[in-house]
Amino acid sequence: MHRGLERAAVTGPDVPAVLAGDDWWTFADLHRASNAAAAHLASCGVQPGSRVAVMTSNRPEFIVTVNAVSKLGAASVLLNPAWKALEVENALRLTAPVAAVADGEGAALLSSRLDGTVLNLDDESVRSSPALDRHSDLAAPRVRVDDEDDAVLVFSSGTTDRPKAVRHTHASISLATEHWCLALGLGPTDRFQVATPPSHILGLLNLLAAAEAGATVRLHRRFDLNEELRYIQQERMTLEMAVAPIALAMANHPDLESFDLSSLRYIMWGATPVTASVADTVTARTGVRWLPAYGTSEVPVITSNPVSRPDEWRLDSAGCPVGDVSLRAVDLDSGEVVASGTNGEIQVRSASAMAGYLPDSETSAAFVDGWYRTGDVGWLDEDGWVHLTDRCKEMIKVNGFQVAPAEIESVLHGHPSVIDCAVFGVPDERAGEVPVAAIQLEPAAAVDGAELQQLVADTLATYKQLRAVVLVDAVPRTPSGKVLRRTLRDEWLSGALSASSAGAD
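^ thats the sequence. predicted structure below, dont judge the formating
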């Protein structure tokens, strides 16, 4: 996985690789610092096959760390910096890292829960230590790294269970990086911004692809639309990355026309299907078009509109397969392949697919004869373009992040007044989907919906918070006990269900 940075350090050593505030790092800086970090992590006991937890915001040291870990033949475990104690504990139990690199609240969470070394990037002594020295002449330890060794683990809620760790090898993540460079038409003259968390597969992929292509990235610790628009204008960015909330914020920006965005080749829309009305509004106001694309944590790059043929771009499709990716749609009941134009589950085959999940017992259900089951429902037209229409998995996708209903339900079941509950997703213009909980309480329970929402907010990351609580006499289930989430969703959309406050008449 680290070969892209090594090549960039040779072909363009003095090219600005990463811009962060007023600071900037060249490719040679990143390479030298990653060598120094590899030497330091090795002295802390990291060796081939080890895992290192990485829980940071968008900053150059994230790139340094994942490349350093790669050089050691170890694997980076990417933890979302928005996670709280319960989520971190579950991830550590699943992946067993021997060391960690973190900032913000993540540094304290990991320091109190990990026996190994935890480098706190907010500590000035760590930032200025030889472990992250961009001027170091240290060489990384000489370690044999094989294509099929694990390189990085990201987290996914591919089913209704708790989040699982997705294992990507050097071969799979490197091929996915090549696919992303192809999909974006990325080259050494490109400049783009990254505000998505680096723990998300899209954030990681953007940073790996930038090094692979020799492109320049500006990092943002948090999303600030005015700041991003200013940088597009001032630094002549050539492409912009967006998910649904960013696109909506652009469409609603009162002064969007005051920014010169003419340097942009396109804005990439990922993580959720395109909202055409929002995309059209931005294009009408700026003249900049959209490049829809589609991927998952398990297969990072699946389709994209053909970047080299802008006359074919369209908003009603996530595009065509990229690189070696093959697609098919299968009947939701029989699993038989269906004809073009027929709705079914979208399945993917590619050498960029994950090696498997942790726990490994979850892996087999994710594949059918080598085809990854995306859980997305849609159809393929005769030219191979994919059209996504729904989901057959029960996972909720909030701002591109996967939320497992069972994880929220587990928290709610911990309240003594909750007899039963079910979490389901409902459409939201800004986030794509948001979670809602249907809850059956003990009779005469002195609890209100706000208290239950706060319980989830105190326990899980912000994007997993409940938009509403609905009180029900009983949670609808099949005779076998399976929750009828689709029924709850349909009743919510029809108005038959409405937000409630427990204990109120």
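The first helix runs from residue 3 to 11.
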